Amino acid sequence: QEEHKHNEMRQEIAVVPLAFPILIGPGVIAAVISLKTSASDFEALISLVLAIFICSFLNFIIMRNMLYIQRVLGENGMRIFGRVMGLLVAAIGAQMLIRGVKAIWFA
To answer: 39 φ, ψ to 5°?
Structure first.
């Protein structure tokens, strides 16, 4: 019985560190740095911090209710959701790349 509990705890510990690099990886860090440099005044900086907190809270709510979301969407819905999110991340990356090239080209 105790060995079973120990193995369960071990699996939970192994899962937690894997989620953070996906949630807060190089892309997020680059986006925050990019947005921070474009924040020209105190109001823009407060807006950036507020947006980070709102996104973190929404992320918490989604992760907390993920079992329910999986049940509602089903297997195909989860696949579609994953692909749409991948497309969104690719679009954001392309936008950042284009903005960077424009900044270098027209500087």
So the answer is: -75, 110
